[in-house]
Amino acid sequence: MLRKEDRLHQIECGNEKAFRPTKHVKEPVKSTYEHMQDFVEVKKNFRSEENHREVMIGPRNFLTNPPKAGIVGKRTTFSGITPYMADDYYRPKKLATEERIHGQSLMQDKPFSQLAKKTHVFNTTKGVIGEDRPIPQREPRKTSPPLMEHDKPFKPSHPARQG
Prior knowledge:
Layout: H1 7-13, H2 91-105, H3 125-129
């Protein structure tokens, strides 16, 4: 939506003149450095001096090889169409099986065991500690039944909430 200005209202308020900026920035007319050319453009005249209608053609700028000779498109090969060769789909599986069987043939009859064999020692464990002589049995403790005194009624430690 465009903003509409009421010009009569502006004149009544004292704004009779159009808006002008208060400050003008002066731009320098003269540059700080002199102009220096990067290169001089040379115009070449390719017309002959004798006859101005003739155009002189210079030597070629670069040379290229001629285009390749032959057929382009689908089924184009260097040595003809390659014949179909059947591929053994199960070849990786057969190789893995042969490798596994060869590995099993190299293994020992009995698998490796980490269990340590028992060897003869000079003294038994009980003899070293000193338990080889008979130790008398201890008398069993006499237990008495607990006294059942109920001088206070039962009160649970964590009763259920009420309310």
